[in-house]
Design a protein that fits this description.
Elements lengths: L1 H16 L13 E4 L5 H12 L3 E6 L6 H9 L3 E5 L5 H10 L7 E4 L17 H21 L1 H5 L5 E5 L2 H4 L10 H20 L6 E6 L6 H5 L9 H13 L9 E3 L8
Helix pairs in contact: 2-10, 5-8
The structure holds NADP nicotinamide-adenine-dinucleotide phosphate.
NADP nicotinamide-adenine-dinucleotide phosphate (NAP) binds next to helix 2, helix 5 and helix 9.
Length: 264
C-alpha cells in the first residue's frame, strides 16, 4: 500500500515538474516571453535570444513533449519552459500571476495556425474552423498582450511584437484570392495592435507586427506554399535584428523582416 502511494506521489510530482520549469531569471539580463516556443520560429527565437544571454520564458501548449526546448535548457539555464495555450483565459492568467512584477522587455506573440486550406476556400467555408483560427491568431495574441502589458511597461525595452505575414496582412490594395481565415485573423489582430498602440501612445511602449517572410515550417506547409522559402534560423535572425532596431514610425504598423513598412 505504501509503495503504491509512493509511486502515485512520484508520478504526480514528475508530471508537475515537466509541465513547467522553475528558473531564476537573471535580473541583469533582458527578458523575452515567447508563445508557441516549442517548434518552428518560436523555437528558433528561443534559441537565438538564449544564445545572446537573454532570459527566455518559452511558453508552449505541451511542455511535456517539448523535447527541443528541454534540450535548450541544458545549454542555457536561463530558459524557463511554461505551459500556455493562448486560447485559455485560465492558463494565461495563471502565468501572468506567476510572473507578476517581472519586467518583460519583449512579448513575442508567435503562436499561430494557418487553418485547413480547404475549409477557408469559397464554396466550402467551415465557420467552426474560422472560429478556431481567430481564437488562436487574433484573440489569443490579444489576450496574452493584455495579460502581460504591465510586465512589458515595467521593462527597459517595452516592446510587444506580433508575427504577421504576407498572406495574412498583405496590403488591402494588393489582395490575391483565397486563404480567407488566415488573412482575416492576422488583419484583425493588426487592427487590435494598432488600437492598443493608440490607447497607449503616452507610454514608451512599441507595438509592431512583423512579417517573417515565407519560412520553412509546418505552418508554411499547411498554407500549401511550395515555392522558395527561408529557414526558421535565418528568419528569426532577421526578425530579431528588426526588433532591436525598431524606429518610432514603425509603431502600430506592419513591417517586413527587412524593415520595410507595409502600407495597409
Ligand atoms: N512560416 C511562415 O512562412 C510564416 C509566414 C508568416 C507568418 N508566420 C507566423 O509565424 C508564427 C509562427 O509560425 P511558424 O511558421 O513557426 O509555425 P509552426 O511551426 O506551425 O508553429 C506554430 C506554433 O504555434 C503554436 N500554437 C498553435 N496553437 C496554439 C495555442 N492555442 N496556444 C499556444 N501555442 C499554439 C504551435 O504549438 P503546437 O506544437 O502545440 O501546435 C507551434 O509552436 C505564426 O504566428 C505565423 O502566423 C509564419
Amino acid at each position: 500500500m505504501l509503495n503504491q502511494i509512493l509511486a502515485i506521489l512520484i508520478i504526480t510530482l514528475s508530471c508537475i515538474s515537466c509541465t513547467s520549469t522553475t528558473v531564476n531569471l537573471n535580473p541583469n539580463s533582458p527578458t523575452v516571453l515567447i508563445t508557441g516556443a516549442n517548434r518552428g520560429l518560436g523555437l528558433e527565437f528561443s534559441r537565438q535570444y538564449a544564445a545572446s544571454g537573454w532570459n527566455v520564458i518559452a511558453s508552449c501548449r505541451n511542455p511535456r513533449s517539448a523535447t527541443n526546448l528541454h534540450n535548450l535548457t541544458k545549454k542555457y539555464p536561463q530558459v524557463a519552459i511554461e505551459k500556455l495555450d493562448v486560447t485559455s483565459d485560465r492558463q494565461v492568467n495563471t502565468l501572468a500571476q506567476k510572473y507578476h512584477s517581472q519586467p518583460i522587455d519583449i512579448l513575442l506573440n508567435n503562436a499561430g495556425i494557418y487553418g485547413t486550406l480547404e475549409k477557408q476556400t469559397l464554396g466550402s467555408f467551415d465557420f467552426e474552423e474560422l472560429k478556431k483560427v481567430f481564437d488562436i491568431n487574433t484573440i489569443g495574441s490579444l489576450r496574452v498582450s493584455q495579460a502581460f502589458l504591465d510586465n512589458v511597461l515595467l521593462s527597459d525595452q517595452k516592446k510587444i511584437i506580433s508575427l504577421g505575414g504576407g498572406m495574412g496582412t498583405q496590403s488591402i490594395g494588393r489582395l490575391f484570392g483565397g486563404h480567407y481565415f488566415m488573412k482575416m485573423s492576422k488583419a484583425a489582430h493588426l487592427m487590435a495592435m494598432g488600437v492598443m498602440q493608440t490607447d497607449l501612445k503616452n507610454t514608451e511602449l512599441q507595438i509592431v507586427m512583423i512579417s517573417p517572410g515565407r519560412v520553412d515550417t509546418q505552418l508554411m506547409r499547411d498554407s500549401g506554399w511550395s515555392g522558395p522559402s527561408i529557414s526558421a534560423e535565418q528568419s528569426a535572425q532577421l526578425v530579431i535584428e528588426q526588433i532591436a532596431a525598431l524606429k518610432p514610425d514603425m509603431n502600430g504598423r506592419l513591417i517586413l523582416y527587412n524593415g520595410t513598412v507595409i502600407p495597409w
